[in-house]
């Protein structure tokens, strides 16, 4: 039978995003939004499991700083008490000062060692947890996310951004806590030694605080731009290397060099801005610190001359101020690391805040048990509508029933909606409206493991992972025996070429299966799908990489393998259609012809024209 042609609006299966002149600008516009407080919540969740160890590191650092800050007090005591006692032939106070200084130094060193050991373990566990979260969450996100958020950006999140956080945890965080504790200890000690001198010293911290605050605000903007700029460089590099064959084939080297140079220069400019901000901060902080110390020393010396201040107290105050002001440069380096890490953590939090658009059901259902003699399942598209985020409606209201065990071929021009139909059946996407049913159960009610056992899709891109041929086939069913793996390969016609490989089924196919041809990779992908033994098998342009002998070999195998199963075969090559019980011709998201191959050829419609053109191409 032939359905009437409709005037539905034209829509591509996956509308192409507009190409921007500046790749960096396009990257900026595609940044993931970070929900309010997502960054702080992420940091808390990372530290929560190791609360006890964090408390221990804080306690160790408190003790270590107490031991460190005892030194100037001992110096003050030595000048004002021990030295005069020594002049009176009393060696006890000076010996006590020396012993106290030695003990405080040993204690400070030992506590610092213990702090480094514990904090290093905490830092590594935090980074381990964070990388694992990024990897697991990226896998859990839906296909539409990965189609708009490139792998290069994910790599940047899990490498460059995590590395920024590592630098903060390993080097900067201790510096910050040390400066804060030093400020508290020293302020209290200066006020205790001499109230007036301590008050002036504490007041001198205000300009430094204002400098730090201004630098943090300016550097934050710069480091967010830097994180985006380096990610854009990584994306361009990964994209170019992944597409090196078309780059060489179409001589894109010069154009790619120009694009990469723009991104590289942008990264250079942002790095220069960061260094400039750092230089301004360091110069300003040193000027304030040196001015404050000089002023306090002069005023303190005047008071010593007036006998209103002891010399040892002034010496201790100067030592304390130098101890506080000396780390100012290192505090700037910490703020550098902090702003870089904060920008990176914000981006990671934005990624982890993304939710799958194809969520797991709250209360999953089970598929009905299959009868052994009828391994297929009925598929129903019930009032389905679908539109991609980036384009118009691909499928207007769409109704279709595929009886259990039927092999259905879907043909049509590019953009007709064929691949969209397959992706909805595999639940890579959910319909905008309507339902896709498998034996009467809405796919949205099936847990992912249950769905993947029932529906398997073989795509045009036969992706193989690094590892052996046997391991790649066993992805379809990880608990399969070697005998079952070889049986699947034999059924699909892949056993002979696999056996001829240097190590047979134990041959490492290397990155992306680069050791074997495209057609051989497709055969391995077929064997993987058949080993999974699905009730519904989707073949989306799955024979496009095969030569004519290879395609015929697969077709012979499919005639036996698909028997009794429900199969949806999407193909441009009409030779693949010959194995189908039924053919659907799609145009603009609608079925315009539906029948057996013989019926549609006899009807002299759209399929007959395609069939005639295909026959002529073989002549």
Indicate the topology.
Layout: H1 23-29, H2 38-47, H3 51-87, H4 92-140, H5 143-148, H6 151-193, H7 195-203, H8 205-242, H9 244-249, H10 253-305, H11 311-325, H12 328-352, E1 379-387, E2 393-402, E3 407-412, H13 418-425, E4 433-438, E5 441-442, H14 448-454, E6 455-458, H15 469-474, H16 482-492, H17 495-499, H18 518-532, E7 536-540, H19 548-561, E8 566-570, E9 582-587, E10 590-595, H20 597-603, H21 606-618
Parallel strand pairs: 3-8, 3-9, 6-7, 7-8
Antiparallel strand pairs: 1-2, 1-4, 4-5, 9-10
What brief labels describe this structure?
619 residues; alpha/beta; six-stranded mixed sheet; four-stranded antiparallel sheet; elongated; disordered N terminus
Question: Could you please describe the fold and organization of this structure?
Answer:
The chain is elongated. It contains 21 helices and ten strands. The longest helix has 53 residues, at 253-305. By secondary structure, the chain is of the alpha/beta class.
Based on DSSP secondary structure assignment, what is the total number of beta strands?
10
Largest sheet: 6 strands, mixed
Low-confidence stretches at least 5 residues in length (pLDDT < 50)? 1-29
Helix content: 55-70%
- Measure the end-to-end span: 29 Å
Mean pLDDT: 81
Per DSSP, the total helix count is 21
Rg measurement, Å: 35 Å
Tell me the overall shape. elongated
Q: Which structural class do the helices and strands define?
A: alpha/beta
Q: What is the topology, as strand order, of the major beta sheet?
A: 6-7-8-3-9-10
How much strand?
5-15%
């Amino acid at each position: 039978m032939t359905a009437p042609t409709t005037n539905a609006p034209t829509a591509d299966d996956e509308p192409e995003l507009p190409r921007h002149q500046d790749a960096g600008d396009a990257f900026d516009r595609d940044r993931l939004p970070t929900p309010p407080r997502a960054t702080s919540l992420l940091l808390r969740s990372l530290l929560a499991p190791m609360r006890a160890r964090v408390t221990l590191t804080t306690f160790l650092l408190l003790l270590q700083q107490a031991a460190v800050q005892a030194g100037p007090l001992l110096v003050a005591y030595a000048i004002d008490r021990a030295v005069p006692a020594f002049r009176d032939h009393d060696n006890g106070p000076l010996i006590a000062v020396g012993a106290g200084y030695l003990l405080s130094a040993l204690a400070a060193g030992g506590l610092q060692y213990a702090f480094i050991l514990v904090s290093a373990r905490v830092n590594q566990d935090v980074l381990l947890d964070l990388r694992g979260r990024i990897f697991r969450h990226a896998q859990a996100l839906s296909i539409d996310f990965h189609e708009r958020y490139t792998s290069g950006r994910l790599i940047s999140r899990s490498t460059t951004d995590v590395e920024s956080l590592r630098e903060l945890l390993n080097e900067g965080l201790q510096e910050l806590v040390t400066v804060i504790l030093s400020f508290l200890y020293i302020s209290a000690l200066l006020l205790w030694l001499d109230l007036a001198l301590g008050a002036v010293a504490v007041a001198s911290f205000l300009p430094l605080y204002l400098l730090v605050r201004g630098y943090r605000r300016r550097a934050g903007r710069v480091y967010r731009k830097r994180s985006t700029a380096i990610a854009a460089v990584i994306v361009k590099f990964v994209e170019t290397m992944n597409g090196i064959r078309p780059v060489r084939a179409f001589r894109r080297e010069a154009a790619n060099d120009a694009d990469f140079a723009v991104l590289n220069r942008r990264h250079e400019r942002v790095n220069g801005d960061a260094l400039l901000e750092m230089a301004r901060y360091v110069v300003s902080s040193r000027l304030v610190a040196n001015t404050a110390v000089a002023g306090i020393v002069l005023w303190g010396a005047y008071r010593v001359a007036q006998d209103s201040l002891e010399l040892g107290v002034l010496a201790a105050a100067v030592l304390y101020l130098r101890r506080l002001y000396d780390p100012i440069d290192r505090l700037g380096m910490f703020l550098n690391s902090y702003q870089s890490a904060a920008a990176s953590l914000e981006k990671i939090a934005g990624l982890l805040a993304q939710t799958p658009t194809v969520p797991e059901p709250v209360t999953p259902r089970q598929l009905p048990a299959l009868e052994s003699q009828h391994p297929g399942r009925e598929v129903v598209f019930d009032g389905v509508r679908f539109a991609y985020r980036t384009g118009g409606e691909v499928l207007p209201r769409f109704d279709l029933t595929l009886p259990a065990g039927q092999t259905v071929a879907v043909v049509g021009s590019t953009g007709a909606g064929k691949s969209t139909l397959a992706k909805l059946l595999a639940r890579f996407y959910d319909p905008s409206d309507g339902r896709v049913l498998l034996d009467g159960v809405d796919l949205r009610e099936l847990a992912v493991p249950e769905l993947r056992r029932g529906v398997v899709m073989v795509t045009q891109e036969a992706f193989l992972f690094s590892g052996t041929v046997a391991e790649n086939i066993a992805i379809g069913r990880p608990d399969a025996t070697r005998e079952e793996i070889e049986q699947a390969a034999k059924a699909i016609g892949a056993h002979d070429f696999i056996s001829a490989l240097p190590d047979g089924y134990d041959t490492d196919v290397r990155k992306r299966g680069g050791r074997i041809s495209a057609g051989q990779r497709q055969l391995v992908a077929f064997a993987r799908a058949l080993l999974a033994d699905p009730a519904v098998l989707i073949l989306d342009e799955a024979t496009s990489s095969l030569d004519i002998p290879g395609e015929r070999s697969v077709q012979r195998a499919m005639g036996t393998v698909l028997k009794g199963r429900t199969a949806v075969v999407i193909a441009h090559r009409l030779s693949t259609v010959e194995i189908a019980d039924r053919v659907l011709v799609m145009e603009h998201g609608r079925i315009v012809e539906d029948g057996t191959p013989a019926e549609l050829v006899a009807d002299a419609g759209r399929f007959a024209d395609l069939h005639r053109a295909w026959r002529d191409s073989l002549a």
